[in-house]
Amino acid sequence: MKKTFELSNGISECLQFLQETFENFKLKKSEKNRALLMAEESLTSIAKHGTGKELVVTIKKSIGKIKVDMLAEGERFDPFDDASDANTLLMKSFSSDLKYVHTKTKNRISISAYKSRNLFLYRIIGAALLAGLVSLIIRSFCSDETRIYLTDNVFSVMKDIYMNALTMMIAPLIFFSIASSIAGFGNAADIGRVGARIMGIYLMTTIICISIGFGLTFLLKPYNYAEAVTQGALDMSQYTGTQIDTSVKGFLMSIVPANFLEPFVKNDTIPIMFLAFLVGLATLLSGEKTRPFATFLDSGNAVFMKIADVVMQLIPIMIFSYVCVTLVPPKSSINGGTLKSMLAAAAAFVLTIIIMMGVYILLLRVMGGLNPIKLIKKYAPHALKVIVMGSSSAAIPINMEVCEELGVPSKIYSLTIPLGATINMDGVSMYLAVFGLTFAKIYGIEITLPVLLSMAFTIIMLSAGAPTIYGVSLICLSVLLTSLGVPVDEALGQAVGMEVIAGMFRTVNNSIGDMVGTLITASKEGVLDREKYNK
């Protein structure tokens, strides 16, 4: 829908046109008023700096989205600083939905008048359906050799490039987020109090997760249905070759790096957090002399959050490649014993996730004094993004965005969310408890109280010190099984088949745990905007 108006005196007519169009599209009153406010301020600025006679307005409606483009000749300007004094701050709050471009002699402002909360869901479903169609065509008309070639050289490459992009942003995002958060605190005492509170909450939920995992495994006995199946054809060296020191000494030694840059090269999040804490605290204690550096930390955080946002928008590409990698290759045979063993253990694991969600709801109500339904409603539209990523660290920008919607101050969530993504691996803890205990029973390991306590300690250390790399849960499982004397290659050969699905459940659980811990901390600190939370 496109219409042309006079630039000098056609603003009122244009606003009337937009209002009638929005009403025809059946926008809610709040959505309509918000879009009209953005349009009015934008039109005023375009007319003020205009040098031509015509204003061209185009309205584009697609699935889950309505966009308004306004184009006119004129001089360059900043639409956020050019708004009336009363609306300057309000316009800046609309920055994510208003885009300005000046090309040659023309000003263009694009307004996102409406964006469905399910828009991303539509894109993901579309990507999955398209991948299914493409896979069906390839399977129907291509030979096995061609399908293998396409999988290895096209779809796997797409998947790996996207995963590299996710991994690339994790280290700088964690560093700048934590460093800028600490530098922005009022004093060092506040940091110590908030840090001690969130660490206590994270440790408590980890212990609860391990207890639920052990308890449910003993109750459901999935090991009675499982079989020890040798997977000689599978190469597990990529998981068994990585060593993780689970001793207290090893964990403490891993915190302080010998080289400032080495943790960033290795994507080792524990020492990165230490460096971020050190830099942020030094900036805070140095006072006015380091204000420019504090601004640099804030700017770095904003830059990498924007990079993360761009990467997140490309998730449908990852979905397309993942589906094709799964469906295009020739079918491989499925061992019945392996399938039975994995379904039994996976069912127990999923049930532990469901129970832990109930625990989170209870903790949020009792410790935070908050209505859990508000968190569920505001997190639900983002949950699918988290599920398909399968990585807690990659989900940091999404969790921060939801924290902002829930009224948590940035100085709190910029510290607690990256911290939780690294050391609060509740989903991983339950996964290790269920699968570790299941495999121990399958291979005849006698489970005594000292063995359980040793397993629990090892799981806590693994969840805190595990590297943020793909397949980390299998790496941690290999370490745990080795400490129990279980044949690692045989056990992992059975577990690897369910890794993608288990990873999705783990990531959601990890992220919800981080959110609950952050909300409880903000509530206890008295800094949570409860009015915004309860909207």
Q: Going across the major beta sheet, what is the strand order?
A: 1-2-3-5-4
Strand content: 5-15%
Task: Give the uncertain stretches in residue-range form.
Answer: 228-242, 332-338
What is the rounded Rg?
26 Å
| CATH class annotation of the largest domain | Mainly Alpha
The termini sit apart by: 34 Å
Q: Give average pLDDT, whole number.
A: 80
- In total, the number of domains comes to 2
Topology-level CATH name of the largest domain = Proton glutamate symport protein
CATH superfamily of the largest domain: Sodium:dicarboxylate symporter
What report would you give on this structure?
- The chain has 535 residues and is an alpha+beta fold.
- The protein has a 5-stranded antiparallel beta sheet with strand order 1-2-3-5-4, with helices on one face.
- The two termini are 34 Å apart.
- A hairpin with a 2-residue loop joins β4 (98-103) and β5.
- The protein has 22 helices and 5 strands.
- The protein has 2 domains: 2-116, Histidine kinase-like ATPase, C-terminal domain (Heat Shock Protein 90, 2-Layer Sandwich); 121-221 and 260-533, Sodium:dicarboxylate symporter (Proton glutamate symport protein).
- The radius of gyration is 26 Å and the shape is globular.
- α19 runs antiparallel to α20 (488-495).
- Helix content is 68%, strand content 7%.
